[in-house]
Structure formats: C-alpha cells, structure tokens
Structure of Riboflavin synthase:
Amino acid sequence: MFTGIVEELGEVVSVEELTDASRFRLRGPLVTEGAKHGDSIAVNGVCLTVVTTENGEFTADVMAETLKRSSLGALEKGSRVNLERPMALGGRLGGHLVQGHVDGTGTVAERTPGEHWEIVKIALPDGMARYVVEKGSITVDGVSLTVVEAGADYFTISLIPTTLDLTTLGIKQVGDPVNLEVDVLAKYVERLLGHDGAGAAR
C-alpha cells in the first residue's frame, strides 16, 4: 500500500525487451536504500516487484498486461519516473490509500499556468468518470491529488510548485499519457450497491 506522496524523481536506465514482458532498470538511490529482492516500489503509480538492486539502481520485470494497461510501455532510456516505497505500518498517511493498481490511462489535455500554481486538465478513458468526484482523491502517475473539477470525460487538478518541481507532472506535455488510479473506496461502494460497470443496477 502506498500514499501517493512521491519520494524521488528517478530515471529509466535501460529497457530490455523480453518475450512477453520488459525488464526495466531504474535509478533511484533513495528508494533502493535497504531494498531487496521481492520488495515493492511504485513507478509512476504502478506497483512493481524489485528483482535486483545495485549502486542506487533496481530492476523490475513488467508483464505484457501491465505494459498494455499503463503508460509504462511508453517509457524509454532517460525517461523520468515518480518513485515511492510502500507505506510503513504506523507511518503518516500524507496522501490517500493508493494500491499501485492502475485503472487506466488518461491524457494530458491542457495546461494553464498561474502565478502560484498550474491547472492541468486530463482526459479520462471510457467508464472512469463515474469514480471521479469534485474534491475527491485521485492518483495521477503515482501522485495523490485532489480533483478540482470533474467533467463528463475529464477532470482538472491544481499543481503547486513543489509538485511541479519534484514529480513528472511538471514535465508532462499536452498529449502525454498518465496512469490513473481512482479511490478504491468508490469501486467497493459501487460493487456493494450492486451496480455493473456501466453504472446500471443488476
């Protein structure tokens, strides 16, 4: 379990194409400190399992399903990535409960700079808008954020200078894909109320 508070802006060192997966080598001296084989690290909001660690770098295997359903398939050598270790039991929950299980990818649709912050509009994939509510939580590329406006097929977020400086959201351009994870509580409520994926009662 993660919190959506990015610890480190890392970098893709290499991507090795395998038969039905890819092996990523990523640089992240902070998150690899004390990490060992089998540990979890969130990369742009995707929970990955550490295979090896060495000199501030770690490797992780990413299966085809994950590459297909997230934006990790678009990463290449030199790409910057948001990194976060799992929350320690008893630690502070600075963001919200994040599983590291991406629900889909959105697209940066518009950026509007302000004097002290920047408004970013993100287009939603089909079927996800029902989980996004104004002032609710959403994870964008592993960053816990508050929804400013929730539209029929988009939402907006307001990014402060710290978020722009310390995460990939500061360098994402219009048209770039972003990983989205909605608040898991919304999905559980939908299931408990007996609604199907289209929002209709069964």
Q: What stands out?
A: The first strand starts at residue 8 and ends at 17. The chain has a mean pLDDT of 90. DSSP finds four helices and twelve strands in the chain. The domain at 8-84 is CATH 2.40.30.20 (Elongation Factor Tu (Ef-tu); domain 3).
